[in-house]
Amino acid sequence: MAGGTGPARPTIRDVAAAAGVSLGTASRVLNGHENVSPGNVDKVRMAVSQLGFQLNAHARSLRSAHSSTIGVLVSDIRNPFFAEIARAAEMVALENGFVTLLANADESVQQQDTYLRGMVSHRIDGLLVAPQGDGTGSLTQIVASGLPVVFVDRTIDGLDVPSVTSDSRPGLREALAHLRGLGHTRIGFIAGPQATSTGRERLVVFLSEAREAGISQPQELVTHGDFQSRSGEAGAHLLMSLANPPTALIAADSLMGVGALVALKARGCESGGTCR
Questions:
Q1: Which domain holds residue 176?
Q2: Helix 168-181 and helix 197-212: axis angle, to 10°?
Q3: pTM of the model
Q4: CA end-to-end span of the chain
Q5: What is d(CA 261, CA 134) in angstroms, rounded to the nearest whole number?
Q6: Disulfide check for 263: which of 46, 169, 197, 236 has CB 3.0–4.6 Å away?
Q7: In a domain, 272, yes or no
Q8: Is residue 113 part of a domain?
């Protein structure tokens, strides 16, 4: 009777038989143990190649306490900042014998939770995450479970998690000083989402540094985006449509800055041009 299941996948028993070694020896070779003779290692590897055997990583993780896998969840993979973080994490993980599962939250708590549940089901050994939202849902549960977690770029109030973040103050101080030196005193700011620690921090720092520089910042010159380019474009259009628009703009992140440039170009605000 013809069937549609196809040939059965070779098992570790098939590998052991083809190599002429015991099941235990084949298992030790496949799991990287050192107490196996070089000759038997070569036999098992040759059998693996001939049979096309693939070790079931999930089954292996169920038998051990570790999967040698780290989850990396970034806020927006299109942002070069987060792409570089993901690449650096991957390189360090590989150097230390780990592989990474990379996921993109796309600045969405719901999407973050979907990926976090999937990563946990793959028995990750640790998690590097740029967190979305206030930490409710899957993230709080994962931290409470004892899984090693490190936050990157953002923090969450009330969650005691090691974090690696940047200092927004020097960059904003330099940006304001540069614009003030060019004669700008009416500066628009496209802030990030206030649901994130970086969004809140950069707005507070911007307003504080503006006061220190003697620059008045009326509320109408501040708009909010979501760290994605479309919101930067919309924010720039909104600010430049004011009866008394700003003469310069600062965006709270690079993607919103790119969006703002698109809007300014569309309005004819290129170097030396007159905005409309």
A1: 168-266
A2: 40
A3: 0.68
A4: 76
A5: 31
A6: 236
A7: no
A8: yes
